[in-house]
Known about the structure:
The chain is built from 13 helices and 16 strands. It is an alpha/beta fold. It has a single domain, classed as Thiolase/Chalcone synthase (Peroxisomal Thiolase, Chain A, domain 1), CATH 3.40.47.10. Strands 1, 2, 5, 6, 7, 8, 9, 10, 11, 13, 15 and 16 form a twelve-stranded mixed β-sheet that branches. Helix 3 packs across helix 6 (155-164) and helix 10 (291-303) crosses helix 11 (324-336). The radius of gyration is 20 Å and the shape is globular. It starts with 18 loop residues before the first strand and ends with a strand.
Amino acid sequence: MGGGLKQDATVGTRPARRVMVTGMGCITPYGIGVTPFWEGLVSGRSAISALTVFDPAPYSSRIAGEIRDFAPRDHMTAREVNGSSRAVQFALAAARLAVVDAGLSTPRVDATRIGVFIGSSVGTFEYAAENHAVFLEKGIRRVHPLFPAQSYGGVVATQLAIALEIRGPAIAVSTACNSATDAIGLAWMYIRSGVIDRAIVGGTEAPLTPLLFASFDRLGVMSRDNEVPARASRPFAKDRDGFVLSEGSAVCVLEAEDVARERNVPLLAEVAGYAATSDAFHPFSPHPSGDDAVRAVRDALKSADLRVSDVSYVNAHAIGSRTNDPIEAEILKVVFGEGIQRIPVSAIKSMIGHTMGAAGALQLISCVQSLRTSTLPPTINLNEADRELGLDLVTQTANQRIHGVVLSPTFGFGSRNGAVIATHAN
């Protein structure tokens, strides 16, 4: 790590308007909704299995986190399903679950004061790839005339705004694996500054398509432990050999505290801080020094008016990469100093794999559930933990521990860094 980095306990000034989580919804390899997601995590059960969505035989990696029990018509109309991508369908289903969970009826509130902020790394890539294959095989007359409207980068936010009748900003965010974290942060800034009162925010990803899978396979960044899929994703393990690609979506309803209290709904947690930085280093790899990633975490804490000593739990980005996991560990050690030995760390991707642009939203839901239940999900597959990393990992089984401030960092392709701070809503 950079020798000039030092601990920073500086605090900033928290704006008066607090931002609360009032609803959550997700579609994951565990199933439909927050309950199976959380139960899967705390039970330490892997959701990774053999890849079936296409023939994996030519690939070195043949495992993934697939969603197998998702029926789009259970969550949307035939018109919404027709011509929409799997990423859009995931997001719309998760958003509707979150809106119901929040008890929010969008027609009954000022729709101009609600925003949509949805992150995705590859977005509608699988839809575009499938339609291109149809075009090559069957020609121009089989091209859907609305293809451009269903395949551009902002379509997920557009479709959610239309379906939920939301008339505030509808913003799509694509910052690789930071996408959902940055979407959450952008919504947080809009709400706390008073531009809007509420936001539908999160991430979605449907990356299990042959062309994209082939690219990651050739890069050699995915796990090739195909014989026992459940142990393939091994963040922070000594024998980790890459990430496991997964699909899914997670969406939260964020509201300004005052408007949420007017509705007299439960406040699940507070999104208290956010920050993002860039290493400006490499299209794929993080900067080995970790300097700018450290700055992102420190700036997020400042924005929450908190000190590093206030953090009691870290829900790590940790994807199982040979090179990236040690850099993340060093980032945490620089931020927290010797205190990192007393801060429990979980890597939920050991169970659900890497959902890329949706990862930050799934981490936030996990953090909110941890705050609500005083339960820390485990990091599984750590029979041989990398002790050189020096982290207090929650291993194998869930840990019952009361805590009040959680850090959820993400680090994405393009040398991007982001951090969200969540706390109790009191």
